[in-house]
């Protein structure tokens, strides 16, 4: 089990009482000034101060500072093992690149739902309203004392590390899935999910490059899909898709064209795609063909299949 180094919350973010802005006078306050206002820290709490022109702005700014402090504490206490890995360039020689990054991103941790859900309703607050007599301009000065114990920190660190472990398992699962490709839809879904995952963790995470490598390997599957003719008789053509010597399915219907045939009807029957057509305007002395075309991702796979009338 990983050990978590608990940093004393009493050491967090020294805070000095904000000096009154020149030309402004205190005209209103929310009540008696609490003894904790102006203190650098209070054990088990995060204390922040903000000043903004409106009450809504000052509350948002203060809580953003609270969330940043919580995220910073979690980032400091997260312990992650960083491993090196290899990246493989698909369209050329193999390129091996070792990457090692050990610093957790505070901004990434701040996006945790538990941190984003931090609300001022749980805090003790004290606010003052100042006004400039000459200009009429006003600003609010807000102090927030938000409860955040060592137990809260442990819970967030645990939640974060569990989330990170889930991401690692997802990457591993998709990587293993490359050994058992059964459908084009599986490839499509993997690329979509991995792209979303890469966007979620950001390129400052060493796993970003790992994910990109796995995505490129899935994209390479498209390049290795071929169209195989199962049967070819006048008026009816049966096809299958092959990948790595095995049949692969797709829910996508191909686009069909011909130099003479028309009235195409396409059906996917399990692993086989059946195309029926009318060849009334095809002639035996011509090179009659049907062109089958799929688009997988940004790749086009097509085959021109010639047929005889008899």
What class would the helix/strand composition place it in? Answer: alpha+beta
Largest sheet: 5 strands, antiparallel
Q: Oligomeric state of the chains?
A: single chain
Instruction: Show unreliable segments.
Output: 6-17, 81-103
Distance N to C terminus: 73 Å
Quick structural gist:
It contains 6 helices and 12 strands.
What would your notes on this structure say?
This protein is an alpha+beta fold and 310 residues long. It has six helices and twelve strands. The strands form three sheets. Strands 5, 6, 7, 9 and 10 form a five-stranded antiparallel sheet that branches. A hairpin with a 2-residue loop joins strand 5 and strand 6 (236-243). The longest helix is centred in the middle third of the chain and has 28 residues, at 150-177.
Tag the structure with descriptive keywords.
single chain; 310 residues; alpha+beta; 5-stranded antiparallel sheet; 4-stranded antiparallel sheet; 30% helix
Write the layout of secondary structure elements.
Layout: E1 24-29, E2 45-52, H1 55-77, H2 106-109, H3 113-116, E3 124-132, E4 138-147, H4 150-177, H5 184-201, H6 207-223, E5 225-233, E6 236-243, E7 246-248, E8 255-258, E9 262-269, E10 272-278, E11 289-296, E12 299-306
Antiparallel strand pairs: 1-3, 2-4, 3-4, 5-6, 6-7, 6-10, 8-11, 9-10, 11-12
